[in-house]
Amino acid sequence: MPKRLMDSFGRVHDYLRISVTDRCNLRCVYCMPEEGMTFEPGHRILSYEEIAEIVRTLAPLGVRKLRLTGGEPLVRKGLDRLVAMLSAVPGIEDIALSTNGIYLASFADALKDAGLTRVNISLDSLVPERYSRITRGGDVRRVLQGLEASRRVGFAPIKLNVVLMKGINDDEVERFLRLTNEEPLHIRFIEYMPIGIPGGTDWSAGYMPLTHVLDTCERLGLGYSPCGDVYGNGPAASYRLDGAAGTFGLIRPISEHFCGTCNRLRLTADGNIKPCLYWSDEYNVRSLIGDPAAVEALFLRALDSKPESHEMAKALSGERMSRQPTNRRMSQIGG
């Protein structure tokens, strides 16, 4: 039987999230501080050739799906070149991109031609002034231009990621839901997570369970029903408004964690394997690149250390946790 990337709980991992940079052109309130971030120097960031070599090692072990993340991946030059390298790896079936969309209109054609399959675009508000506040300076019109370019070149499915925050954008749920009526867009509401939050910060003040989305449907009399998984929808519970062309999904890492079906590993921009988003455990693989057996062994070792659950709900309630949470910001991990 061929080797597989299986952890001690029997979870098979076929999905690798690859951060290509820790830098970003925005400063979203749940991801990065407004100032004071220290970024990795260029020589500490994995080259495209190093990333491709890691993927060539993992594909025979069953990795089929890749997602390029950041920071903002489109701030790194020549990303289409990396996409082309990865799409040429035998066994890789799907390459997705998580982006804030600001630069997407400029690069959509080149990325599509290189082999990019689909995109997830972060869009936490449709109100220009509010979007600018959440992102600390972003222009929502440019994101919408990136969305239009994604439609034009044929990325599918196109997903819009909305981090729902109490008192900030929770009044926009209806507007996002109605986007799915006429077009095959897939809105994914995501619970606010305590990733890299400095000590003393009242993270719970912004947290809102996603029952709010279904409650909004009920309040407005919007009929909906569960629907089959949208391709690549991972941990989202998917629903469709009656008669809608698109869907909406709920990703609930706090209120209903999905650790039992986790199939993903993460590779940070500076070459660390992260078996779990929340915990501090990391394994630096960079020095082993060029030795496929050693790279494989380190990934298997990282998987052996992967815990059963991330325990984020304990962070909300203030309970004692079994491990040390990461102090890295979301932008430094890749989400």
Describe the protein's architecture and organization.
This protein has 335 residues and is an alpha/beta fold. The chain has one domain (15-333): Aldolase class I (TIM Barrel, Alpha-Beta Barrel). Helices cover 28% and strands 17% of the residues. The protein has 10 helices and 12 strands. A 12-stranded mixed sheet has the order 7-8-9-6-5-4-3-2-1-10-11-12, covered by helices on one side. α1 (48-58) runs parallel beside α2 (79-87), α1 packs across α8 and α2 packs parallel to α3. The protein is globular, with a radius of gyration of 19 Å. It starts with 14 loop residues before the first strand and ends with a helix. [4Fe-4S] cluster 2 binds at residues 259, 262, 276. [4Fe-4S] cluster 1 binds at residues 24, 28, 31.
Helix content: 25-40%
* Number of helical segments with 4 or more residues: 10
CATH homologous superfamily, by name? Aldolase class I
- The number of strands is 12
Structural class based on helices, strands and sheet pairing: alpha/beta
Instruction: Kindly provide the radius of gyration, computed on alpha-carbon positions and rounded to a whole number of angstroms.
Output: 19 Å
N-to-C span:
32 Å
Q: What is the level-2 CATH architecture name?
A: Alpha-Beta Barrel
Which runs of at least 5 residues are low in confidence (pLDDT < 50)? none
**Could you name the CATH topology?**
TIM Barrel
Number of domains: 1
Strand content: 15-25%
